[in-house]
């Protein structure tokens, strides 16, 4: 939903050496520009990334919590199976399923999916994965199995700096009231509930919604409507920094092209819209608030070109992500790990 100005490239950004990897097998650099990922490059092609990660997790985490994202380049990662092994080894949590998702994607294998399958000419705006929910992955893994002929970057924006840019009056209202997400599934407009919840069993859906404090309403035509009040900001569990963390700007009708928005509002009542975002008390969010929010994202967005074989680890709280339009074939896979709910239950 929606479009944004393509992010600026970081090709010309000067990088500075930070430290060598284990036994000099890899070299780590960080950019001087906030929003650009740190880069770990294998000195010898064919180095096993899973093995390297197991010996260097503390180093990777240190750079991840500072830069927000880390790119691994020139390692031996060629297939979805290779990628799954890397993502499964790169942390202490198993890979997560994409249940209660909001975008179309294909499951390649357990825990590995295609990135969002929107037409290549469309821009996917900045967002933190599943920030429209109360439970989300702490880490995202991307694998560029095939780079596009042009464009197709996965731009990033530092969510800490995005928060700082949003005017205090806007920020404080969101922080105080939270955000109510209203979703109507299917109807030929949005994803069917069977795809979103990865089941066709109503009782399974009801159990999931009850466990996640999602208000559920089965509709006479067999459709489903849900409402959930969620956070606008989150404190990072490791760095204790506060970050802007929601998807109100994507669910709100102001994200749509004017003609599409006009047609939807003429066809559906506010309660029947495929997606909508309200303040947590149920009142309408002003378009002007989203003008400020989108400006903050745009100011912080940085795009780093992919190379085929790259793997990128993103801290899902510290960094939002999107996708630039592209030309030619492109295949980027994604995996998610480290559930927020599991962290809270562990009391960490």
From TrEMBL:
<feature type="domain" description="TauD/TfdA-like">
    <location>
        <begin position="32"/>
        <end position="335"/>
    </location>
</feature>
<dbReference type="Pfam" id="PF02668">
    <property type="entry name" value="TauD"/>
</dbReference>
<keyword id="KW-0408">Iron</keyword>
<dbReference type="InterPro" id="IPR042098">
    <property type="entry name" value="TauD-like_sf"/>
</dbReference>
<keyword id="KW-0045">Antibiotic biosynthesis</keyword>
<keyword id="KW-0560">Oxidoreductase</keyword>
<protein>
    <submittedName>
        <fullName>TauD/TfdA family dioxygenase</fullName>
    </submittedName>
</protein>
<dbReference type="InterPro" id="IPR003819">
    <property type="entry name" value="TauD/TfdA-like"/>
</dbReference>
<dbReference type="InterPro" id="IPR050411">
    <property type="entry name" value="AlphaKG_dependent_hydroxylases"/>
</dbReference>
<dbReference type="GO" id="GO:0051213">
    <property type="term" value="F:dioxygenase activity"/>
</dbReference>
<keyword id="KW-0223">Dioxygenase</keyword>
């Amino acid at each position: 939903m929606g479009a944004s100005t393509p992010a600026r490239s970081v090709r010309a950004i000067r990088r500075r050496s930070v430290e060598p990897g284990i036994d000099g097998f890899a070299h780590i650099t960080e950019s001087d520009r906030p929003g650009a990922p740190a880069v770990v490059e294998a000195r010898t092609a064919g180095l096993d990334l899973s093995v390297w990660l197991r010996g260097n997790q503390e180093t990777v985490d240190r750079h991840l919590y500072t830069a927000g994202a880390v790119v691994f380049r020139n390692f031996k990662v060629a297939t979805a199976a290779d990628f799954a092994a890397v993502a499964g080894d790169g942390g202490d949590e198993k890979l997560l399923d994409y249940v209660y998702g909001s975008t179309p994607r294909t499951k390649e294998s357990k825990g590995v999916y295609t990135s969002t399958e929107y037409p290549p000419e469309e821009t996917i705006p900045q967002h933190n994965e599943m920030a429209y929910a109360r439970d989300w992955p702490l880490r995202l893994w991307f694998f560029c199995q095939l780079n596009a002929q042009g464009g197709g970057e996965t731009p990033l924006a530092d969510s800490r700096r995005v928060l700082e840019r949003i005017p205090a009056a806007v920020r404080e209202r969101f922080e105080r009231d939270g955000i109510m997400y209203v979703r109507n599934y299917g109807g030929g407009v949005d994803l069917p509930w069977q795809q979103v919840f990865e089941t066709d069993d109503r009782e399974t859906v009801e159990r999931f919604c009850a466990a996640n404090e999602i208000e559920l309403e089965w509709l006479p035509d067999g459709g489903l409507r849900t409402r959930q009040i969620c956070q606008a900001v989150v404190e990072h569990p490791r760095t204790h920094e506060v970050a802007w963390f929601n998807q109100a700007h994507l669910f709100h009708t102001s994200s749509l092209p004017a003609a599409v928005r006009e047609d939807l509002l003429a066809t559906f009542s506010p309660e029947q819209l495929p997606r909508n975002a309200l303040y947590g008390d149920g009142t309408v969010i002003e378009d002007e608030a989203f003008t400020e929010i989108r400006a903050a994202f745009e100011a912080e967005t940085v795009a780093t070109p992919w190379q085929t074989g790259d793997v990128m680890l993103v801290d899902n709280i510290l960094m939002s992500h999107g996708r630039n339009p592209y030309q030619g074939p492109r295949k980027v896979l994604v995996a998610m790990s480290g559930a927020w709910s599991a962290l809270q239950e562990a009391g960490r």
